[in-house]
Design brief:
Layout lengths: L1 E5 L5 E4 L4 H12 L5 E4 L5 H13 L2 E5 L2 E5 L9 E3 L4 H14 L4 E3 L10 H9 L3 E3 L5 E5 L6 E5 L4 H10 L7 E6 L5 H13 L4 E4 L2 E4 L10 E3 L4 H14 L3 E4 L12 H7 L3 E4 L3 E5 L7 E3 L7 H8 L4 E6 L11 H11 L3 E4 L4 E5 L6 E4 L4 H9 L8 E4 L11 H7 L3 E5 L1
């Protein structure tokens, strides 16, 4: 799909889309519980659909009706299930240990760049626990065997999703287990999110320095009904876009006490000079004079695209560092952020694990490709707020991976959008 976005100002009020990071975890825990769980989640993205599809293949019954996902748990895991993960890294990394514990002996089908994304540390941990894996690095990966309890060592600086997947899987074993992390843990907020959801399902864990202990005697207990809180990473595009163009915008359904690490966007906005007003369930950004800063992205990699866009409007040089993990996303996101913004007229430079943006002047506009990456498509669209001419995005359908209604919300906030199939 090709989308053209004309220069405009975003302002008004938007409701945050439900967090797909929370929804993944809630769905998996609900599928492992003892009775039905209802999850209030008004929008289902492609990534969430992938987790629903895979849990259904494992034996759960899942229905979505009028903004509520009803999950009837797995009672007898289906052996030999084919789990189509689409392009969802969370689905693949979370369900690998879950399926291994269930003894489902599945085949994972991987699409897009998913087969290229790092898995070796998790594979090694699962193999030490008794799982045989075939097809590593291909688009079809098969497991055999059943995971046994024990100690699982995972490096902390590759993907927190490995740890989260094990946290959701290991309570199903009858004996205690331990996850030992080596080195610094990046994106620790996502592990906190997993622990938070586990607590909702009555699971207890003991977090110690460098390790997490999981009891084999606890069981997932459904809370009956829960809600998926609003997503900070996608909401950051609206907040940064408004700050960049001098608009005034409120984003509702955001928990300011959330364990989502990406709520750090409020701190970044304030550091860069925007006026930010946080209330219990909303955040408002008012115009301010933006200034350049140095930003450590090690714990907020998903915020780099909207921050890079905002930096284009800040007079001076902004540096975003410790961002090397972005090369392993749906695209090489360090390269694609630079390629996209440079094509639109930005002065931006890519280094091994960092970006430098020299901002303070309008973008020219132009035509770009999403590179199949939802966050690149959203960044390019919001670049229209500081552009002199139209911005044309090819492959704009990629936004559906996390935000199916993105362009409708953009139009409601004042964006001028034209879609072409």
């Amino acid at each position: 799909m090709k989308v053209t976005v004309r220069p405009s100002v975003v302002k008004g009020t938007v409701r945050a889309i439900p967090s797909k990071s929370f929804a993944h975890r809630q769905l998996i825990c609900a599928a492992l519980a003892e009775r039905e769980t209802k999850i209030c989640c008004r929008v289902i993205s492609e990534d969430i659909s992938a987790t629903v599809r895979c849990l259904s293949a494992l034996g759960a019954s899942i229905d979505f009706n009028d903004g509520v996902i009803s999950v009837t748990p797995i009672t007898s895991p289906k052996r030999g299930a084919v789990l189509d993960c689409g392009e969802s890294g969370s689905t693949y990394r979370f369900l690998s240990p879950v399926a291994a514990v269930l003894g489902a002996e599945p085949t994972f089908i991987l699409r897009g760049r998913l087969a290229e994304r790092p898995m070796a540390p998790l594979w090694e941990a699962l193999e030490r626990g008794g799982i045989s894996i075939e097809g590593k690095g291909s688009e079809s990966v098969s497991f055999s065997g059943r995971l046994t309890a024990g100690e699982f060592e995972i490096p902390g600086d590759v993907s927190s999703q490995f740890i989260s997947g094990l946290l959701m899987a290991l309570p199903l074993l009858e004996k205690d287990s331990r996850i030992k992390t080596s080195g610094p843990v990046e994106s620790g907020g996502y592990i906190d999110m997993t622990l938070d959801v586990l607590k909702t399902f009555s699971m207890k864990t003991q977090v110690k320095e460098g390790s997490i202990e999981i009891s084999g005697t606890d069981r997932f207990i459904s809370p009956g009904s829960i809600a998926t809180e609003g997503d900070w990473s996608n909401s950051a595009f609206w907040l940064c876009g408004a700050a960049a163009c001098g608009g005034s915008l409120s984003c509702e359904d955001l928990n300011i006490n959330s364990c989502q690490g990406d709520r750090a966007i409020t701190r970044v906005l304030m550091e860069m000079g925007a006026e930010v007003i946080c209330e219990e369930n909303s955040v408002r950004v008012n115009a301010g004079t933006l200034k350049p800063v140095r930003i450590d992205a090690s714990n907020i990699p998903d915020l780099v695209p909207p921050i890079a866009l905002m930096a284009c409007a800040a007079g001076g040089e902004t540096e975003i560092f410790n961002a090397g993990r972005l090369r392993l996303k749906e695209s090489d996101r360090l390269y694609t952020v630079v390629d996209t913004l440079r094509r639109l007229g930005a002065e931006i430079f890519e280094e091994a694990s960092s970006l430098r943006i020299i901002g303070g002047r309008p973008l020219a506009g132009g035509e770009v490709n999403s590179h199949g990456d939802h966050r690149i498509a959203m960044m390019a669209s919001l670049a229209s707020v500081i552009s002199l001419d139209d911005i044309v995005i090819n492959g704009a359908e990629s936004v559906s991976k996390s935000y199916p209604g993105f362009f409708e919300d953009l139009a409601a906030l004042g964006g001028i959008v034209r879609k072409e199939q």
